[in-house]
Write a structure and sequence with these properties.
The protein has helices spanning about 45-50, 60-65, and strands spanning about 40, 60. The protein has about 80 residues and is low in regular secondary structure. The protein has one domain (about 15-70). The chain has a two-stranded antiparallel ribbon. Mean pLDDT is about 80; it is low at about 5-15. The structure holds zinc ion. Zinc ion binds near residues 25 and 61.
Length: about 80
């Protein structure tokens, strides 16, 4: 029997911290980074373990996603 189990990923801005967890820049609508932002699916403890500078951010902006090593150079 096939069970239909669908998990919906919501993009409610109320439950997400709209900053880049690499550089801390806002990725809210109107910032210019909204369109190309990438949702970060790890939870905050995982981000801390990964050495991210802004672990509360729920997104990665496009420049950081393209060039992540730049933000790990101090580790
Ligand atoms: Zn960034």
């Amino acid at each position: 029997m096939l069970t239909a189990k669908t998990e919906y990923i919501t993009f409610s801005s109320k439950s997400r911290v709209e900053i880049c967890n690499h550089c801390g820049d806002s990725v809210e609508f109107g910032t210019g980074k909204f369109v190309n932002r990438i949702p970060e699916l790890n939870d905050t403890p995982t981000r801390i373990a990964n050495g991210l500078l802004f672990p509360k951010g729920d997104f990665v902006c496009e420049p950081c996603d393209s060039n992540p090593e730049k933000f790990y150079s101090n580790f």
